[in-house]
Amino acid sequence: MLVVIKVISGQHCNLKSLNSQTALWKSSPHVIIVPMRSILLRLIVCVFLLAGCGGRANGQSASTGVKTIENIGSDTIVNLALAWAEAYQKLHPDLRISVTGGGSGTGIAALVNGTADIANASRAMTDGEKQQAVKNNIQPFEIDIARDAIAVIVNPGNPVNSLTVQQISDIYTGKIANWKEVGGEDRPIVLLSRESNSGTHVFFLEQIVRLGQKDNTDLFSPDTLLLPSSEGIMAEIRQNPNAIGYDGLGYVTSDVKMIAIAAKAGGTYVLPSVESVNAGTYAIARPLFMYTNGQPAGQIKDYIDWILGPDAQTIVAQLGFVPLKK
Which of 104, 182, 225, 245 could form a disulfide with 233 if both were Cys (CB 3.0 to 4.6 A apart)? Predict the structure, then answer.
């Protein structure tokens, strides 16, 4: 089987720097992921699991003629996209699927610039991105591929178990700065967020920090630590009893605590889960997208049709995301 995996992890672009020593190694017979961090640039690691792989030219390997699908974007989706690529290539060994992370903005930019066949995004394209695509003769076509809950997480030793959306907004804007203000201990709140190129960051800013209000211009507190990866957030939450963070449900580990959330004061507090997302009772849920240039055709259409089918949607559930409803 031919598999090419490119893995990007982002740089710190935080308002306060936070050095994390966490590294993620995920391996299988066909996949190796090595996140790497740099202060000045993103590093791309290409792992070739079959000797003699050539460069991509017009969708084909120059040395083998094997066709390649370039799939770039959301770090939320990257592990799911890797699992899909591996499973699909077992069925289609003549096809190579190159999966790259880097953030939703990175994937959308690659589609707009003509260097990606499929962009993964954990948020919808902005009007500005769509306008730039049209200028480049790209016609973005949006496909819902799964759903996700964004979990708000704290250290297991934190006695706070529940928050309203308004309280979370006030915490992340700095209006609430001590855990005692929300029923916790007299400790300062340490704010963690994904970096600004992350689709999860954008969604959380628009829907939680700004409460879904289009005329709201609130921003994350300048004390917020912007981290380049889910692993970095999990590592800091585990070791810092004062920290609060958020991430996609599929990335939450068992050694952190998820907060039950109510949409408004006096409402029911609900934990994130596949069931609560499907029931519409969890307050921070979102669709996940793939974008192509125009309606998919040929091998790209075949691949996306498979993603929307039962085998691929089973993988969605296995990785902690929410499958599309049948």
Answer: 245
